[in-house]
Amino acid sequence: MQVEDHYVDGNAVAGDLLELFAVDVTAAMGECAHCGHEAPMAETRVYTQAPGTVMRCRGCGEAVLKLVTAPHARWLDLSGLSRLTFRTDPALA
Asked: Most buried of 7, 17, 58, 73, CB within 10 angstroms?
């Protein structure tokens, strides 16, 4: 048996992901994949005058998050982020 044979499907992390996205994402720290600028997501520049919403890095202006909402689905692109950090205890901030 090889290492890649020891996997489960994405449902195994459903609870963990639900817990993460049940928080205020704008309070999370985002690191831009383009320039490395790190700041709370609330500090991004948000553009809503398009088919979707685009959050851009204040450091370099590149898109860090794109969200498109339609009646039947939502598309979320986080490829502009190298990391998104959610603090679990506000006292540690």
From this structure: 58
User: Looking at the predicted structure, is the pLDDT value of residue 90 above 50?
Assistant: yes
Tokens coding 34: 């383009």
Range list of β-strands (E), the chain:
29-32, 38-40, 45-47, 53-56, 63-70, 73-77, 81-85
Give the bridge partners for 52, in sequence order: none
Structure tokens given for 86: 């959610």
Task: Establish if 71 belongs to a structural domain.
Answer: yes
| Residues spanned by the domain of 36 | 3-84
- Helical H runs in the chain? 14-21
Residue 92 domain flag? no
- Mode of pairing for the β-strands spanning 29-32 and 38-40: antiparallel
pTM of structure: 0.80
